[in-house]
Inverse folding.
């Protein structure tokens, strides 16, 4: 397939991945299933005169993420709406959902806050898997929350299961406490070369960059979370592949107990956290 070769060469993708992406663009533009595309390969010939397909292909050849072009991305077995207003959900973030569910069960946690919810992927999957948990999700971007709300309407039987709030981290959460706080905050250093590469170069910068060393938002969350954690509550957050050690140091310095870190499927330590015990911290 000529267009698959073009995508492969332009983006440096493996042959199979490039072919799969072109097939997805064809399926979307021609409004057909993969089975129909396989059964009737002549349908692909229509692409030469199909303007929606040609425009989608042009966008992909410039490097725009396939998820933004399709407006969809799979995460934790569900298909989420996405746009350039939100980060693209990634497989490594599924570890944060797994750990949240484990802590909910192990420690009998009843209320969860998702900080910087973006597309709502983390909050929605927790709500789906543990429908008895009270869930609040916040984001500083109203456009992101609009997408999260749409996803909750599509993926939850009761979209009211999650209370969405426009908030700059904890700013609008006065007097509220939770058993568990989860977050996938911006954690890339502002001069990191990866910001100019691949999908990341198209994603919202405010959802990626965490200051000069990438830790500004992690520090803020670790510092302020105790004001909103119930006694014995947990904080869990995603961080960069090389930020586990400093994350644990920040947790210990802030007075958290039982610091934990877990590896994702690629073997990188990707999620860390700790427990807030009022008596142990000397506050209250």
């Amino acid at each position: 397939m000529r267009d698959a070769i073009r995508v492969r060469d332009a983006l440096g993708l493996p042959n199979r991945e490039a072919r799969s992406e072109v097939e997805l663009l064809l399926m979307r533009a021609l409004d057909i299933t993969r089975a129909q595309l396989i059964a009737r390969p002549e349908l692909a010939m229509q692409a030469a005169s199909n303007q929606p397909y040609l425009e989608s292909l042009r966008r992909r050849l410039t490097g725009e993420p396939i998820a933004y072009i399709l407006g969809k991305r799979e995460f934790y077995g569900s298909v989420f709406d996405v746009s350039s207003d939100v980060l693209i959900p990634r497989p490594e973030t599924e570890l944060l959902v797994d750990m949240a569910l484990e802590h909910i069960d192990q420690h009998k946690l009843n209320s969860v806050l998702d900080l910087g919810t973006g597309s709502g992927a983390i909050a929605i999957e927790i709500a789906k898997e543990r429908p008895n948990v009270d869930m609040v999700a916040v984001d500083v971007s109203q456009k992101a929350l609009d997408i999260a709300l749409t996803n909750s309407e599509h993926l939850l039987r009761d979209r009211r299961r999650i209370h969405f709030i426009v908030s700059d981290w904890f700013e609008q959460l006065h007097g509220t406490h939770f058993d568990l706080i989860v977050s996938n905050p911006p954690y890339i250093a502002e001069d990191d070369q990866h910001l100019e590469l691949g999908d990341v170069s198209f994603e919202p910068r405010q959802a990626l960059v965490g200051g000069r060393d990438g830790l500004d938002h992690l520090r803020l969350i670790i510092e302020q979370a105790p004001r909103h954690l119930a006694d014995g509550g947990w904080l869990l957050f995603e961080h960069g592949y090389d930020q586990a050690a400093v994350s644990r140091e920040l947790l210990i310095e802030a007075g958290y107990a039982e610091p934990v870190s877990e590896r994702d499927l690629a073997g990188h330590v990707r999620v860390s956290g700790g427990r807030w015990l009022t008596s142990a911290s000397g506050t209250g």
Remarks:
- Residues 167 and 173 are 8 Å apart (CA to CA).
